[in-house]
Amino acid sequence: MNTKLKEIAKKIKIVAFDVDGVMTDGSLTFLEDGREIKTYNAKDGLGVVMLSRAGLITSIITARDNNAVKLRAEMINIKELYMGQKNKLSALNDLAEKYSLSFDEIAYMGDDIPDICVLDKVGLSCCPNDAVKLVKEKCKFISSYNGGRGAVRDLCDFILDSKGITYEMISKPTNQ
Length: 176
Description:
about 40% helix, about 180 residues
């Protein structure tokens, strides 16, 4: 990655993620009784845990509202969970205000059109490799991995590396 992008990443204090298409591969699986099943990547989860251990604030901003997202957020120590967000910009504004941070200190990873309003505002706009074209055109960091297949971990590793933080510095046993 280029030096300018690493300088932007050094400033990041909050890392926020969409869920479907970012933390998952975008598939929506429903049981006959209407319950939803989501599949998450363990390596992505550990990356998010390591961000928290390094002192960054982690967040999920998603339009969906279901228990599967809430459970995953708890498992990987997500500090700020915004579900049912039809207007994701409102959640972003809340995050910035709550922590008295500028948008330049926030990274967000999204994959589709509802994420563009947030990607346009944050300091480090990010997406998986399989994001839609309009999103990719807005992003400074485009992972070489797809959503649910390592894109989240790729971003986590990049931010930690840009800050000079190694996994050895922040690792301890985990079951993520």
